[in-house]
Amino acid sequence: MVSFIVRRFIQAIVVVFLVTIISFLLLHIIPGDPVIRVLGMHASQAQVAQLRHELGLDMPIYMQYGTWVWNIFHGELGKSFIYHEDVAKLIIERFPVTFYLTFLALTISTIIGIMAGVISGVKRGTFIDSFITLFANVGVAVPTFWLGLLGIYLFGLQLGWLPVEGWTSPLVDFWKSARQVIMPVAALAVPNIAIVARQTRSSMLETIHQDYIRTATSKGLAQNVVFYKHALRNALIPVVTLLGVTVAFLIGGEVLTETVFNIPGVGRLLVRAALDNDYLIVQGIVLIIGVIVVFTNLFVDITYGWIDPRIRYR
Questions:
Q1: What does the DSSP 8-state code read for residue 86?
Q2: pLDDT at position 132 over 80
Q3: Cβ contact 185:261 at 8 Å
Q4: Which residues contact 145 (CB under 8 A, 6 or more apart)?
Q5: How far apart are CA 232 and CA 57, in angstroms?
Q6: What is the pLDDT of residues 250-263, one digit of tens each?
Q7: What average pLDDT is seen over the chain?
Q8: Where are the domains of the chain?
Q9: Least confident residue range of 9-13, 154-158, 233-237, 286-290
Q10: 253: Cα separation from own chain's centroid
């Protein structure tokens, strides 16, 4: 087990190294001169030369990359062109908002999705199975931003039940914050509930036909014990794998959700930076998201052994 964790950690470090290369090259692979895109076509040669020197773009590309990585290890991601503040500071200020929404959406979608998938698998062929399957098929196809806009129109503008935009920290006003996050979290969670439910149902149907399940049933164990103690734990392995991918999907959904609901998170900051040609912010956010996804998948791999003791790492 320890050797497996070490190998996977080394692999994760290699992937993170590749992520840094991709993030760094964002500034160079986009057509055009990034300095001109920032200053405009009418900038003087002196202004262009000064900004190019400040960004280190007058150095060879390998030196630019080395300097950028060295600064990352010192917690420096550069200075924003638009906000005139450190990129790391801007991201840190907004990260708790994105983390809060992502955590709520992931928790809700995991709990409801697994419950719905188990019920659908156990009650295969019944009305409730058909209903859950229909919801899952529709939920997978519905775009996150469309759910957000529908929620704004129905629950915000027509019924007036919920605010249509804004953000309040739960530490400042919990109830106001709760009302503001209902629609964004629902828009993020619904597609993931459908995905998790489908995968859980499929895994349960495959697991309950295994020989050890038949043996447990023939020994006279109650169905609830057979399904929830023996079958569910083994059926969760592919679901856990899916949850690692779901984190990346949720973070991507934050970009649209935070924009639609005007929430000051990392996703909205990324959109604003991309539109304003603030590529240092884009680089920093892409790097951080990549690192989060890599280590989330590392954590998922490690949890396999806890979920299923039959798995032995060599």
A1: B
A2: yes
A3: no
A4: 187, 256, 257, 260
A5: 55
A6: 887 788 888 888 88
A7: 79
A8: 2-73, 96-307
A9: 233-237
A10: 7
Q: What is the DSSP letter of 230?
A: I
User: Per the structure block, which two tokens stand in for 310?
Assistant: 């039959």
Give the pLDDT confidence score for residue 23 in this predicted structure: 79
Spatial distance between the Cα atoms of 264 and 270, rounded to a whole number of angstroms: 10
Look at residue 275 and tell me whether its pLDDT is greater than 70.
Answer: yes
Instruction: Return the CATH number of 96-307, one of 3.40.50.2300, 3.30.590.10, 1.10.357.140, 1.10.3720.10.
Output: 1.10.3720.10
Question: Which of 38, 65, 85, 43 is CA-nearest to residue 278?
Answer: 38
Bridge partner residues of 86 (DSSP)? 79
Nearest-CA neighbor of 188 among 114, 134, 137, 252?
252
Residues pairing with 79 in the sheet: 86
Q: What is the dihedral of CA 83, 84, 88, 89, to 10 degrees?
A: -80
Residues across the chain: 314
| Rg from Cα positions in the chain | 24
**SS3 state of residue 196:** helix
State the pLDDT at residue 289.
85
